[in-house]
Amino acid sequence: MERCAFGKTGNGAQASLFTLTNRNGMRVSVTDLGATLVAACVPGKDGKLTDVILGYREAKDYETYGGFFGAVIGRNGNRIGNAEVELNGKTYHLEKNEKENNLHSGNSGFDKRIWEAVCLEEENAVRFTLESPDGDEGFPGNMTVSVTYTLTEENSIKLHYQAKADADTIANLTNHSYFNLAGHDRPGTITDHVLWLDADAFTPTDADSIPTGEIRPVEGTPFDFRSPKEIGLEIDSDYEQIVKGGGYDHNFVLNHQGEGIRKIAEVTLPAMGRKMEVFTDLPGVQFYAGNFIGEEKTGKGGVHYGKRQGLCLETQVYPDAVHHENFPSSVLKAGEVYDTTTVYRFVWE
Question: What are the pLDDT digits (tens) for 190-239?
Fold first, then answer.
């Protein structure tokens, strides 16, 4: 394992970069700024490494360009309508950072913090820990959070999330990595990637991307990825949910909930002979096709990222779960342990 400086934040805090390598030559880099996945260099058929993660060159770029690239989002990933949460009869007001709603817990979320890092050499892993005080981001309770990144010999990036709080609060952590199996610096888009999702339904949204509470079958809609389909095939259709989102940016209701860690998605790029499999124990996944990545974002190697240059598969509890009794709950009870795992596994053929 290697550790090196990753530049300083705007307030002068020093960030570090940790690089893990397995016996196959796969290399993964993570930083303690936002517990962020910076790079995943995956070998191809010819043995050459390709970095499939969109990211920036150093810490200050993550602050300058934003976009949550590769970051751990918390306490709550995705959106909360009207930027408020009611717990035990009390209403907690959150930051309104997307119109009247809260997105990814606000503009001072976990992705903006320097986490405490511990190298777990024998496990080929790095554990990041963060203390989130009572009232942080508007949420109640003192919370301790940890995220452990492990690079396995099976070419998997395993993310193990744990959290505990001393009062009832919200816990819905996710990772916001953008993937492009052809390489982060490849011109063009991810519309030629083929996606399979183990989901019979999705949660439609209103004009502000807040779920309506409906759970809609994917049958007969552009959201049916139960058989592998090119992402670009229906991404610009006139289906009302596609129009509202500018493409795909929706939560999918995963099958086999409650059955532990299972395979929920697969992304392939036939032209490159490369595949990414996604496993999780969570009930939902946000498929975002990068519809609003702006070209003002300058990434690693001076690359200018553009619309749909990367895709996200953010495992999660459904967005705005606190306002929909028919959704799985995102409430973490005082003293209980939040414990969930997501795995991204890479295969080349």
Answer: 999 999 999 999 999 999 999 999 999 999 999 999 999 999 999 999 99
Compute CA 321 distance to the chain's CA centroid, rounded to the nearest angstrom.
Answer: 17
- Sheet with 274-280: list strands edge to edge: 116-120, 125-132, 143-151, 156-165, 337-348, 274-280, 262-269, 194-197, 229-230
Question: Strand pairing partners for 179?
Answer: 53, 311
HSE (CB half, 13 Å, CA atoms) of 29? 20
Q: With a threshold of 0.85, does the pTM exceed it? A: yes
Q: What is the DSSP string of 56-95?
A: -SSHHHHHHH-S-TT-EE-SB-SEEGGGEEEETTEEEE--
Listed in sequence order, the residues at least 6 apart from 223 whose beta carbon sits closer than 8 Å to its beta carbon are 202, 216, 241, 248, 250, 252
Bridging pattern class, strands 2-8 and 14-21: antiparallel
Q: How confident is the model at residue 243 (pLDDT cuts 50, 70, 90)?
A: very high
Provide the sign of the torsion angle of the four alpha carbons 23, 42, 249, 197, taken in this order. Answer: negative
- Which amino acids are annotated catalytic? 176, 314
Do 288 and 255 touch, CB atoms closer than 8 A?
A: no
What confidence tier does 296 reach under pLDDT thresholds 50, 70, 90? Answer: confident
